[in-house]
Amino acid sequence: MLPVKKNDRLDVHVHDLTHEGAGVARVDGYTLFVPNALPGETVEIVVTKTNKQYGFARLLNVKEASADRVEPPCPIFYQCGGCQLQHFSYEGQLRQKRERVVDALKRLGQFDVPVHDTIGMPEPWRYRNKAQVPFKQEGDRLVSGFYRPRSHDIVEMSECLIQDERNDQAIQVVRDVLDARGVPAYDEKTGRGVIRHVMARYGYHSGELMIVLITKTTKLKGVNEIVADIVERLPDVTSIMQNVNPDKTNVILGATNKLLYGHETIGDKIAGLTFTISPHSFFQVNPVQTEKLYGKALEYAQLSGTEQVVDAYCGIGTISLFLARKAAHVYGVEVVPEAIEDAKQNALVNEIDNVTYACGAAEDVLPEWKKDGVNPDVIVVDPPRKGCAESFLETMVEMGPKRIVYVSCNVATQARDMRYLADRGYRLMEVTPVDMFPHTAHVETVVLMSRVEK
Ligand SMILES: C[S@@+](CC[C@H](N)C(=O)[O-])C[C@H]1O[C@@H](n2cnc3c(N)ncnc32)[C@H](O)[C@@H]1O
């Protein structure tokens, strides 16, 4: 029998945070997850759900508060799932993110290594350069906002304190225009309606603004008037695209883009390099911290100008171009065709000619390069959350670079992949967490592994 059941009210001590930002408590060895509770606190809870291994509870009352508990500045913080840690002091967040990295490396990778302090932001608000906001219909009104945690229930929002103000303003304006022009929201349950999400992406240094209207249908009634209204009310807009996503899916963007106004891309700069960004391309969302993240990757790569380098999972070639300024040649690989087109364009625009880009899965392209005699001194990887394919790691080991720099947004898969590498001749040398997403539970890590010389 479980030590607790649904609707039980009890006091518990919180000793940890999950990677989703919920407090963790134990009752007679049984784990309970308590959103909005902080490590070190004693809280009164009500149990809301129990599974065999663990359960969930709602915070009713903080009996002994952590010294790190602060008042969240956002009025809808406790309803909205957009961020998770506004009730945690920023210093506390940075400390806790570092502890999470230490813990994951130990538990999942059996690494016991020093981890540097998390590199934080001096002003950790209004940092996001991209907003993707879902829409719903409430009577005859269009409503936009982020989902409540663990649901598809939209919490109405007029501003978001982790978004740049220009994105906030853009979302409000586009919503008002669509509402005034009678465009109905898409309804996930019935599959009817038109507007699913609106994406706003601005160039931090260029000031260019892209709006993407993500629709269920190809037809968007009154499209010319909608575009004219948006352009009139948002003078910074340089690109308006329609993206069509007809599928019943949680994936936001569909396959087809249609240019409605201006250019198909926007531009931005990172550390003096210029980048072109398409709607489908990955581009880091925190421009201030991106320079620190890439700076750390470059430092760990220890380039002297003579090295052959591979940049795997290269997106639009951001890290590649950073590295190319200090290396003999860089090979970049990326699976999204639009991103690799952007990468080639970015190399041209920045007059960097010592890069070669290939479109495809890194696990397929790396063996091809190996066959062709590419012999990298350094390999940089920056995979998505699921980490690297094992066959990719295998080829990397066969290629035997002196250094591997692993950038990751998921320390769990990173620890798994690094254990594979550590068992095959690489030593974990340095670990630096970087806070790319203040007030959320995410943490990015940059790691250096070196080949052990026999
Ligand atoms: C975390 S992003 C990093 C992008 C880039 N390094 C940057 O900082 O902007 C991961 C990238 O990997 C790409 N990707 C995902 N799976 C891939 C695979 N199997 N092979 C190559 N690229 C992949 C994604 O499209 C995305 O651009």
UniProtKB/TrEMBL annotation:
Q: Which GO terms describe its biological process?
A: methylation
Q: Cite a single Pfam family from the UniProt record.
A: tRNA_U5-meth_tr
Q: What is its EC number?
A: 2.1.1.190
In its UniProt record, a GO molecular function of this protein is:
methyltransferase activity
Q: Give the residues annotated as active site.
A: 409
**Residues reported in the UniProt entry to bind S-adenosyl-L-methionine:** 284, 313, 334, 382
- Provide the TRAM domain boundaries: 3-61
- Keyword annotations of the record: Methyltransferase, S-adenosyl-L-methionine, Transferase
Concerning NCBIfam families, the annotation shows:
rumA (TIGR00479)
Family in the record: Belongs to the class I-like SAM-binding methyltransferase superfamily. RNA M5U methyltransferase family.
What is this protein identified as? 23S rRNA (Uracil(1939)-C(5))-methyltransferase RlmD
Name its species: Exiguobacterium profundum
Q: Which gene encodes it?
A: rlmD
